[in-house]
Amino acid sequence: xxxxxxxxxxxxxxxxxxxxxxxxxxxxxxxxxxxxxxxxxxxxxxxxxxxxxxxxxxxxxxxxxxxxxxxxxxxxxxxxxxxxxxxxxxxxxxxxxxxxxxxxxxxxxxxxxxxxxxxxxxxxxxxxxxxxxxxxxxxxxxxxxxxxxxxxxxxxxxxxxxxxxxxxxxxxxxxxxxxxxxxxxxxxxxxxxxxxxxxxxxxxxxxxxxxxxxxxxxxxxxxxxxxxxxxxxxxxxxxxxxxxxxxxxxxxxxxxxxxxxxxxxxxxxxxxxxxxxxxxxxxxxxxxxxxxxxxxxxxxxxxxxxxxxxxxxxxxxxxxxx
Length: 322
Ligand SMILES: C[S@@+](CC[C@H](N)C(=O)[O-])C[C@H]1O[C@@H](n2cnc3c(N)ncnc32)[C@H](O)[C@@H]1O
Prior knowledge:
By secondary structure, this protein is an alpha/beta fold. The protein contains 13 helices and seven strands. Helix 11 (231-241) packs across helix 12 (255-268). The two termini are 27 Å apart. The site of S-adenosylmethionine has 21 residues, from helix 2 and strand 2.
């Protein structure tokens, strides 16, 4: 079946524009049909393209954000029983697939990070661009909010998180400010409170391409949602369920995620990832997949112009060996 991609296609009626759409659908070989698991269904843009690629394609869509899932359900209702939605964390993949009685999968997709729905809703507290409660949880029904995290963590832990997850070299200065604020009995309750505090901690914006709070917000979001935890285990579980010649495609938005994906795929392709000084391999690398993207696929200038949020995206894919 022919597919229409791009800004004016069937995906354009919701604000979120799926990133690297054509490339992803091609690497998934979705035109062959079969069962696909979209582990981050979000607003259903990629899922819809999979469903359109073949009238024989089925999608099991997972998301930990119930609000996004409901919108995806409405959007994809026209595909009837070809689309099913599950509210879960993809790191529970084995449990989700067992409950859904799925044994083998033709293709997995994980489009990591946040959706436009999350970024653009002030009440979700993901962005310094709108003032709202400092929440940042993808699943609003569980876990600690960003405000609670800032109220609880030690200065050392705050600095480590902001440095590691935000790659922010002024992390210590920002952590100090947060703790001083706390010691004065003041709380950081809103995105505006945090954005102002970071701005004051790092000084004027001169020579900066991005808002001074960008990296701190990214770091907190990763910490609140434990985004890097078990990402490698999730990939291993997915490959386990892939049928021969089945595909796995992963889109990431920052270097920390991409590094984990790259290493895990290399290991699954049989390349040992142990430090060179070790006399023998202990990482358990086994040749289960062929990597389809020697280098990650990145968006074209045209896509970035059309959708600036695609700027940092990287797509890697692999094929299960027979
Ligand atoms: C970039 S959006 C996906 C957009 C989607 N591909 C589309 O075209 O509309 C990422 C989604 O993944 C979800 N997500 C992130 N981490 C998750 C996890 N560990 N388990 C389940 N969903 C997750 C987020 O809630 C968000 O809705």
